[in-house]
Amino acid sequence: MTRQPQLLLGKVRSLNPLTIVSTQSHRGFVTTALITATLADLLAGKQATMANSMERGELHNKTIDYKLEREERVQRRINNLKDTRPMTPNYEGHIPLYTTEKVLLFAISGIRSFFHPENGLNIVQLGEATAWPMFLESLKRTMLSDPTGRRILRDRPNVTTQQLEMDHLAEYPEGTFGYQFYKWCKRENVSPDTRAPVSYIDDPLHAYIFKRYRQCHDFYHALNDMPIVIEGEITVKALEAANMGVPMATLGAILAPLRLKPIQRKRLYDMYLPWAARTGFTCKPLINVYWEEVLAMDCNELRKELGITLPPDLRNMRTERREKIHRLNLKYKKLKEESNFA
Amino acid sequence: MVSTTHFGSKIVPVDQKAKLVGHVFSSVASKYDIMNDIMSLGIHRLWKDHFINKLDPGMRPGSTEPMNFLDVAGGSGDIAFGILDYAKAKFGDVKSTMDIVDINPDMLKEGERRALDQGRYFEDPRVRFMVQDGETLADIESNSKDVYTVSFGIRNFTNIPKGLETAHRVLKPGGIFYCLEFSKIENPLMDMAYQQWAKALPVFGSIVANDYNSYQYLVESIERFPDQETFKKMIQDAGFQAAGYESLSSGICAIHWGIKA
Fold first, then answer.
1. According to DSSP H, which parts of B92-159 are helical?
2. Which residues of A touch B223 (CB under 8 A)?
3. Interface confidence (ipTM) of the complex
4. For residues A44 and A39, what is the distance between their CA atoms, to the nearest angstrom?
5. Residue B56 assigned as binding residue
6. Over the stretch A193-243, which tens digit does the pLDDT of each residue have?
7. What is d(CA B22, CA B18) in angstroms, rounded to the nearest whole number?
8. Is the CB of residue A74 less than 8 Å away from at least one CB of chain B?
9. Contact B207 A109 (CB under 8 A)
10. What confidence tier does B159 reach under pLDDT thresholds 50, 70, 90?
11. Within the 184-213 window of chain A, which residues sit less than 8 Å (CB to CB) from chain B?
12. Residue numbers in B near A108 (CB within 8 A)
């Protein structure tokens, strides 16, 4: 029997090393050919498809309104582009997200916030990504169980420079909260307008509550005389976490100190975080304070009513430490110069 | 009855469109390059390189008269600087002038800033940065330009035929109108992939750049722009001869040209 060279495709039936062609693998060959032909047609078969449509009389057909077809095609594609969101927006500026997109938002903003917490945008996005419905519901219940909280939800006040009338606050008597807030804003060089709008929270009431929380952050700073340096921010966040259970504040209070200098960490762990936890857990829910109405109230009275005692002054501590280091440096500079002269 | 036009998928009064488009570009001006890179996955640089190489711009050696280029809606400056660099590298042309115009001062400022940072074409008598509306080009004289380039800008014009007529006006006889713009994708597979990408893009823009609306406007304005043949016809209607086009990346964008008789 003469052995002829045969090309082998598909299943090997023969152990004969000279077998190159197999007559038993048509299936493999046909499938491969079909796939290749389809792909080739889709990728590079423009002339073939045009020839087909020419034969069918679809090309240069005088009875087809090409302009209308084009416009319909454009309209269809635009409609396709428009319904990409899981639901219609529930409020102005609402961007609904799918669950996978929310996870992506959490991951990206989390990583960015860790490396660049000074960039407000990252914190804002992380805050919204972690503002889960469970937390917002519990905050809503806190607000609804208090008469002032209920009034806030009814009135929906918006904290802007214009509504607060910042210029008038300068004229308030010295010990009032309004004057304290004005002084604090001027010292830290911020204004109440710097709060970003809420976009990713789905329920409109939850979105308002979160907006209110975001806008009141500066009031907490001013009430406790915390500067906007990173330590001050962590302290206020810890206060918010203890008082309201804000997930992002909790995350921040736990993770953010890890990136600080040892002396800052020591100050936080020894003094400010315990103070924040103590105060936050024992004082009244800060979300229920109608800040616009307590502007005329005396600061100490307000603090007593809420159950807050002031922490050690952070700014003073930092300044004192800076001065001590400066004196140390001067002393050793002089010593070195003297020893050189010796 | 106020006449209306399209702003992406919204219908707006005509006089408002320019302002709305202006807002889009002001908010993205500083991140425009990043946005382009994200949208086209960096391929826009290849397209722009091909655009310039195909044009082969520059005053030829032995020629006495320098060329006058005009780059419209080219605020960020990449095509304009690319043309001048090419002319200098290939023909040793250091005399041709370039006018970079854009309707949005923020974009123009970005371009001039880039010139300053790169150390060339800043406060250069050859290069002028002007704020102009592409539909009127009020400060550009008629019959004064050899080449009119517009790259990814003409789809934002409120009135494209008017823009084409203005281009015809400012070009010298024999001048070239040269346009790079998104167009109709001819390959069905690529088209499906693009549509998914276009759906995901505004969310990416929202998460990464905090700007959902600008990206939504951009993908819608790409859809609204006419396809290759229709735009070629519009160029011919404006009075240009020898109009033609070349599709790039199977139709994602296309270079259109026309010559003023």
1. 105-118
2. 74, 77-78, 81
3. 0.75
4. 8
5. no
6. 667 788 999 999 999 999 999 888 888 888 888 888 888 888 999 999 999
7. 6
8. yes
9. yes
10. very high
11. 199
12. 207-208
Identify the closest residue of chain B to A101 by CA–CA distance: B203
What average pLDDT is seen over chain A?
A: 84
Predicted confidence band of residue A1 (pLDDT cuts 50, 70, 90): very low
Spatial distance between the Cα atoms of A4 and B190, rounded to a whole number of angstroms: 46
Query: Mutation test of the interface with chain B: which of A53, A67, A77, A105, choosing the one with the most B Cβ atoms within 10 A?
Result: A77
| Any A CB within 8 A of B229 CB | no
* Mean pLDDT for the stretch of residues B104-133: 89
Residue type present at position A88:
T
Report the distance separating Cα A50 and Cα A60, nearest Å.
Answer: 11
Please give the backbone phi and psi of residue A11, each rounded to the nearest 5 degrees, phi first: -65, 140
Instruction: Output B59-63 pairs: Cβ under 8 A, ≥24 positions apart.
Output: B59/B87, B59/B91, B59/B93, B59/B95, B59/B96, B60/B91, B61/B91, B61/B92
- Do residue B223 and residue A199 have CB atoms under 8 angstroms apart? no
| Other beta carbons less than 10 A from residue B138's beta carbon | 9
Inter-chain CB proximity B203 and A101 less than 8 Å: yes
Q: Identify all chain A residues contacting B200, using CB atoms and an 8 Å cutoff.
A: 84
Distance from CA of A89 to the nearest CA of B (A): 13
Higher pLDDT residue, A125 or A13?
A: A125
B126: pLDDT strictly greater than 70: yes
Separation of alpha carbons A295 and A142, rounded Å? 23
- Does residue B54 register a pLDDT over 50? yes
Residues A218, B17: Cα–Cα separation, whole Å: 38
pLDDT (average), residues B117-132:
90
> Which residue in A99, A105, A103 sits closest to A86, CA to CA?
A99
For position B8, what pLDDT does the model report? 62
Query: With a CB-CB cutoff of 8 Å, which residues 277-336 of chain A face chain B?
Result: none
